[in-house]
């Protein structure tokens, strides 16, 4: 790891700032749109709302510029961009009751591009049934898959992989776009395990079918990973949408600007209007208020958005009062119903040295890979070391369905996901491999259809055990104090059941013939098989995939719960829209950046009326 640490130190020090404002006195006095957060969704809106030249747009971002930072460019270094770096909010989750009371780091990007600048670049859009459920839940058909998938064409630009290999059969070109904004591609560096995985999908086709491309909307099966990588480099919302828009005179971007609250500017039809925001340059910096003539758009992400709402007096009255904040709008759903993908990293010791473990611990190997990346944008650093993944269901006759209705978004949506990594990975638990010089394969299992949340359509509640879901709550009324983030993971027997069955399924996967001369033995607590052993193993090792949603949930306009209506307008107020991952009521069959980009494209078309 030494070499990686040295590279990170180098990259973190090489920050240079582009044509952005640092000084609030350079801003106009008002803008048509003020966007809070220059992250994944915020930069899509900045680009789309400024593109016709008619609107003035301001983006306020707490972090700095992404430019000049190597760790935000080299795909393989992605996992070193967080936690606890200058690009991170450095959150830690509260002790997780169902994970032996453990806490762990909970990164969120704090830099232009937001979490898209620091994430692991897996890029896809979820199950068609996720979007159809959203349309059903909200009563707004424009969220259905048939309606939303048109935004893929505006959003993505499919480009050849870094190694230019023949991609026939690895994706379906006709359902992708080569004319959108964000470069994405298939893996750019072949892993020794890829062909063994493909062979296993043939041998165990009924349990682990091969799926040529999950962008059809049917996610089930094992597929080649598509990543937000183009020409061997990371694509973020900052390197794409924002960069393309930076020359426009009607767009200003202020970095180092932490928004501390939305400001009430009056009443409209008996509803409070919040067409101004207050921000500061850090805890000691001066405070400035800036007004939006059309709308304030909150895009601070699934943690930042509920925190800002609560600081503004918008949230659960009892919680606000306990933090000495006057309630302007009592919206109890703010910061509630947080949903996540629980992650369990399962590793096996393997033969030989074709794994990428050496690249992660041998300074000479890492330095050669970096030189190749710098000179030619080729080699292992163009990739994330994970080339295949998949989405899978419990068998239809699984015993858990006798007590729990199926919570998947539909019959062709998944209960769990697998990601195959060609090295030892331990999530953020920082568990060292048993043999520091060994070679490993890791099959990360993630729970896709969690029931550890408040659900109205499925009766999981007993009088003794009402599941509340995860929460984001203020620690105090100080905007510079991190909120309490309780993910509420694995609170239901269904969730624990899925992870046990996922681990058992992965053991069957590695018993197939393509692995007989490769896989040696499972690592640590993975070796057990009894329910109690697997539960204990999961409790000891599980973290998350960093996919929080639901903390400012969309809901039908007329119902009491929820935070925004189906057009993303803050309920009970005027002048504010929320556009980021916090509005998804359920966590999708997807890593959440892709769905967030489509959401933001849809929001731009709602706002501009195209
Ligand atoms: C380590 C990690 C790995 C991940 N891996 C993947 C992956 O491989 N694939 C995938 O699809 N998804 C992944 N995700 C999740 C995905 O990146 C996020 O779901 C998505 O980017 C969220 O977009 P957003 O617009 O909601 O928020 P963000 O992109 O986080 O944007 C929020 C922005 O608001 C800013 N902000 C917050 N508060 C304030 C404030 N008070 N004042 C001013 N600015 C503020 C933040 O600094 C940030 O720039 C990962 C996330 C993490 C953290
Ligand atoms: C996160 O931690 C890093 C490393 O200690 C630090 O540089 C950075 O300022 C911290 N970020 C915040 C928001 O506190
Ligand atoms: C790519 O592979 C396919 C199938 O194997 C083959 O038909 C095609 O000719 C190849 N394309 C190129 C450019 O080699
Ligand atoms: C951010 O603002 C603070 C307070 O004004 C200042 O000390 C700091 O240098 C600024 N940082 C950047 C990167 O501009
Ligand atoms: C959580 O979401 C469900 C819908 O899935 C809803 O019925 C419930 O009211 C929500 N709870 C809160 C506190 O918002
Ligand atoms: C870059 O590619 C050229 C041409 O293939 C090759 O000669 C050179 O060695 C490569 N550079 C590195 C650092 O790998
Ligand atoms: C489910 O069905 C399969 C195949 O028909 C069978 O092998 C298995 O034992 C059944 N499992 C349960 C829990 O009934
Ligand atoms: C790992 O390899 C290093 C370098 O070859 C060696 O010094 C060390 O003893 C090895 N450790 C183990 C546990 O084998």
Describe the structure.
This protein has helices at residues 2-13, 40-50, 128-138, 145-148, 150-155, 194-203, 238-245, 301-311, 317-322, 357-361, 363-376, 493-510, 531-541, 593-608, and strands at residues 30-36, 57-60, 91-92, 105-106, 156-158, 182-184, 221-224, 229-230, 233-234, 251-254, 258-263, 266-268, 271-273, 276-280, 287-298, 314-315, 329-330, 342-350, 386-392, 416-421, 439-447, 471-473, 484-486, 519-522, 543-544, 576-578. The protein has 610 residues and is an alpha/beta fold. Strands 1, 2, 10, 11, 14, 15 and 26 form a 7-stranded mixed β-sheet that branches. Strands 7, 18, 19, 20, 21, 24 and 25 form a 7-stranded antiparallel β-sheet that branches. The chain has a two-stranded antiparallel sheet with strand order 3-4. The protein is globular. It binds flavin-adenine dinucleotide (FAD) and 2-acetamido-2-deoxy-beta-D-glucopyranose (NAG) (7 copies). The site of one 2-acetamido-2-deoxy-beta-D-glucopyranose has 9 residues, from loops. The site of one 2-acetamido-2-deoxy-beta-D-glucopyranose (NAG) has 3 residues, from loops.
Count of extended strands: 26
Number of helices: 14
In whole angstroms, the N-to-C terminal distance is: 50 Å
Task: Tell me the fraction of residues in β-strands, as a range.
Answer: 15-25%
Task: Please outline the major beta sheet.
Answer: 7 strands, mixed
- How large, in whole angstroms, is the Cα Rg? 23 Å
What would the principal axes of the Cα set say about the shape?
globular
Structural class: alpha/beta
Could you tell me which ligands this complex binds, including any ions or cofactors? flavin-adenine dinucleotide, 2-acetamido-2-deoxy-beta-D-glucopyranose
Q: What is the helical fraction, as a range of percent?
A: 10-25%
Give the averaged pLDDT, no decimals. 94
As residue ranges, the low-confidence spans are: 8-18
């Amino acid at each position: 790891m030494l070499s990686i640490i040295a590279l990170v130190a180098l990259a973190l020090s090489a920050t240079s700032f582009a044509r952005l404002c640092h000084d609030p006195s350079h801003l106009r006095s008002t803008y048509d749109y003020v966007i809070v957060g220059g992250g994944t969704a915020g930069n899509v809106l900045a680009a789309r709302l400024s593109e016709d030249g008619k609107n003035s747009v301001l983006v306020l971002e707490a972090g700095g510029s992404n430019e000049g930072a190597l760790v935000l460019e080299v795909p393989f270094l992605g996992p070193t961009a967080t936690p606890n770096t200058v690009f991170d909010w450095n959150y830690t989750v509260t002790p997780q009751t169902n994970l032996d009371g453990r806490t762990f780091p909970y990164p969120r990007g704090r830099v232009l591009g937001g979490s898209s600048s620091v994430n692991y670049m897996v890029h896809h859009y979820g199950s068609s049934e996720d979007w159809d459920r959203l349309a059903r839940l909200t009563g707004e058909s424009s969220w259905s898959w048939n309606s939303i998938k048109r935004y893929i064409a505006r959003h993505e630009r499919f480009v050849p992989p870094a190694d230019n290999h023949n991609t026939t059969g690895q994706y379906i070109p006709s359902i992708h776009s080569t004319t959108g904004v964000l470069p994405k591609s298939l893996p750019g560096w072949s892993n020794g395990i890829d062909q063994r995985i493909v062979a296993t999908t043939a041998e165990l086709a009924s349990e682990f079918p091969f799926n040529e491309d999950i962008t059809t909307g049917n996610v089930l099966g094992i597929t080649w990973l598509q990543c937000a990588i183009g020409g061997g480099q990371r694509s973020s919302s900052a390197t794409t949408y924002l960069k393309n828009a930076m020359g426009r005179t009607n767009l200003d971007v202020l970095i180092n600007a932490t928004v501390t609250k939305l400001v009430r500017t009056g009443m409209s039809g008996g509803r409070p209007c919040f067409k101004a925001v207050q921000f500061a340059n850090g805890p000691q910096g001066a405070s400035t208020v800036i007004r939006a003539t059309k709308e304030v758009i909150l895009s601070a992400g699934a943690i930042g958005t509920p925190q800002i709402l609560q600081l503004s007096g918008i949230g659960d009255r009892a919680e606000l009062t306990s933090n000495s904040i006057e309630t302007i709008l009592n919206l109890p759903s703010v910061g509630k119903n947080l949903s996540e993908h629980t992650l369990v990293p399962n590793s096996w010791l393997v033969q030989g040295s074709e794994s990428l473990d050496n690249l992660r611990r041998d300074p000479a190997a890492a330095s050669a890979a970096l030189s190749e990346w710098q000179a030619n944008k080729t080699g292992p650093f163009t990739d994330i070391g994970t080339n295949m993944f998949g989405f899978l269901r419990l068998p239809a006759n699984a015993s858990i369905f006798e007590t729990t209705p199926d919570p998947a978004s539909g019959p062709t949506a998944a209960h769990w996901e697998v990601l195959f990594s060609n090295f030892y990975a331990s999530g953020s638990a920082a568990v060292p491999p048993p043999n520091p010089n060994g070679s490993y394969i890791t099959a990360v299992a993630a729970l896709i259809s969690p029931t550890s949340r408040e659900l109205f359509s499925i009766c999981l509640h007993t009088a003794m055990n009402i599941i509340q879901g995860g929460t984001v709550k203020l620690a105090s009324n100080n905007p510079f104090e991190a909120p309490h983030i309780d993910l509420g993971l694995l609170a239901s027997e269904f969730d624990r059941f899925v992870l046990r069955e996922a681990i058992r399924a992965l053991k069957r996967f590695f018993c197939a013939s393509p692995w007989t001369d490769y896989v040696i033995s499972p690592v640590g607590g993975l070796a057990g098989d009894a329910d109690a052993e697997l539960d204990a193993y999961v409790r000891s090792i599980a973290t998350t995939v960093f996919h929080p949603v639901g903390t400012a949930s969309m809901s039908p306009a007329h119902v009491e719960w929820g935070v925004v209506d189906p057009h993303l307008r803050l309920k009970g107020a005027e002048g504010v829209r929320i556009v980021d991952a916090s509005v998804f009521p359920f966590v999708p069959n997807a890593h959440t950046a892709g769905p967030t980009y489509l959401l933001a494209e849809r929001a731009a078309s709602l706002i501009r009326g195209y």
